[in-house]
Amino acid sequence: MQTNLPSRDLVLIGAGHTNMHVARMWRMRPISDVRLTIISPFSRATYSGMLPGTLAGLYEPHEMEIDLYRFGASCGARIIIEEVTGFDPDAKQIHFADRPSLRYDIASIGIGSVPNTSHVLADNAAALSIKPMATFLNRLNNQLQRLQAGRSGDDPLSICVIGAGAAGVEVTLCLQTYIASRSHVARFCLVDSGEEILKGYLPNTRQLARRELERREVAVHSGRRVSESLGSELALDDGTKLPADVVITATSATPPQVLEQFQLPRCEDGFLAVRPTLQSTENDDVFVVGDTASFVDNPVPKAGVYAVRQGPVLWQNIQRRLQRQTLRPFQPQRGFLSLLATGDGKAIGQYRGRSFHNRLAWKWKDYIDRKFMRMYQDYRPMAMQQPAANSPEPPAMRCRGCGGKVGGNVLSAALERLQIPSSEFVRQGLDHPDDAALLNPQAAPVEVVSVDFFQAFMDDPYLVGRVAALNALSDIWAMGGTPRGAMAMVTIPAGKPPQQVDALTQLLAGGLREFSAVDVALLGGHTTEGDELMVGYTVLGDLGGNEPLTKAGLTPGERLILTKPLGSGVLLAGHAQALCRGEWIDEMLAGMLRANHAAVGIARKFQATAVTDVTGFGLAGHLLEMLDASGVGAELSLAALPQLSGFEELSSQGVRSSLDPANRLSEDQIKVETPKLRALAGYQALFDPQTSGGILMGIPAAVAQDCLTDLADAGFKSASVVGTVTTKSGILTVCQ
Ligand SMILES: Cc1cc2nc3c(=O)[nH]c(=O)nc-3n(C[C@H](O)[C@H](O)[C@H](O)COP(=O)(O)OP(=O)(O)OC[C@H]3O[C@@H](n4cnc5c(N)ncnc54)[C@H](O)[C@@H]3O)c2cc1C
Q: Smallest Cα–Cα separation from 61: which of 46, 41, 42?
């Protein structure tokens, strides 16, 4: 994906309003010799300004989202979908729960804020926080579905929104439309500890909002706190009891708890302390923006408008910091236009001392929000322009002596950062590195060996390392073996030692995570420099006294079962062109990260006669190998082939993997029932190369359904009977 590792890392933590401005500018003018990484817990970033409108059904959910994978692919930014759990500015490290820390040169922290959730609601199953906003609609829908089960249509739901600031008022009014659109009947109430709703707003604006809430029969309880949560009832501090099937917290913004693990100075309000330049008060290379920032000298309200206005200052100041120039201060505006959707095609607004509630205000809000989002939803790949910052010296020409091996210091630094568990299988391994690893044949004889190697298919080396390990292990599992040890082969792009150490550490840590989960020892390996990040493993295993599960052995009448959906080749090709939606990538990665050993265990249980894993040659290629080895034929049903979401759409746009033409060379061995089947997506899926694909097995017909049930219980929900073994030796027939 790149030919040189840039020498500096700019990392944006959180894909909120300010950080995404930097990403957008990067798209137009990337900074030379700097890598941009965006970290977010979700593959889609939600724009809060449009959530109320989405609740009211005025927008489709995708209209309020930025698809980070597509955005990253369009601008060459590395996307890491993970939650940050800590931050160490001295070591310049960003921490995560489940993966190695990531180093940065410049970081910008913008992880937003969370509603102030009372401990009273901590154990209340009915309580739904408005954050994380990315999951709010799903959480709300799940809860409504649960509540509706066993309830009669005219039995009203009681919905209580806690917090009557702008977000609480908007959500209450727009939620009414949402609930009505789902044919639910509901009573609403709005509770706030302040004496007035919409604190900080003009009296006339408050008046307009009160009037609208009254008109919609929303019971407003101002100056009241929730004191107790009693099942599906809330008690307020004046003794009032409120029925509450759903409790939505949209209270004032408080710091996310994780900020306690950020070793940076904080203000009294718990948010990170910043200077006017948006830098942390004690660290020049750390910027803090949006709701997460607390200006020591001049606090501003927690509102998206401030976060948005900080974007251009952040972008300039990051470039200035990289060039060691003087930074410019952020000057917050005094007042701003405020528009609150009421969900009925109108909005309440205030501007320059005037308050209004009308359709024009909604049109205005809609125009502003759509215009804003259009800037972030343009995923067309950008032709790389001239870098913005001064170009550094070109990297010195590197000789490729000794096969371009990376420096020993890079390797040892990476290995030091990893925890490599000991294993009975290893007599001497990476604990005392020598010319070769020594094995312990008493622990397990080496009876089965396989190697697999591929180019990094995404920019996150940890993720690639995990998938590479599972992909390599799968060959041993597909033979019916138990993997015991693995040797790594890695190619990393040239670069400065810190960047190389980081890439290698992330890559190997990903592999180690999967190896450790199945007690496989990392024995050693070989690392070279090359143009692209590549990784593979040789895996050694034993058969544990069992017969191997080969490709030969299929008998006519058996059912062919495939355990994972097809389509990763096309999706990855689509991703390279910024065409692949975030939710499709999420689903594809979840499939790739599902280890195949449970499926092979089930194959053995149901007396599978032949087993293989579907990888680079695609389903057709691997099945033809099985048919040749078994001396039989097969009939495949295209309609039964499980496909990844997005495969059909991308396929119909002509997106193909670069391996597709080679895989189609097997087409002359395929008999198609009618020629029009060749136009179907299922037919294209036959030739799509898979990465960490599923297991294909021949199972006696009588137990095929039971086998599918076991596979679904083991997490292979898409496992399907895709065809039948026939007597027509070597012929693969494809039908509807
Ligand atoms: C319903 C609602 C409507 C609103 N409407 C408006 C409005 O119309 N106008 C207005 O000015 N303000 C509005 N606000 C307030 C506005 O949402 C915030 O002020 C604004 O989002 C702050 O921007 P931000 O970039 O700081 O944070 P956010 O936009 O919240 O972005 C934070 C990002 O950080 C990510 N993140 C969180 N934790 C982690 C972690 N541990 N590791 C990595 N990433 C993490 C999140 O997933 C998110 O992508 C509204 C708020 C709500 C709740």
A: 46
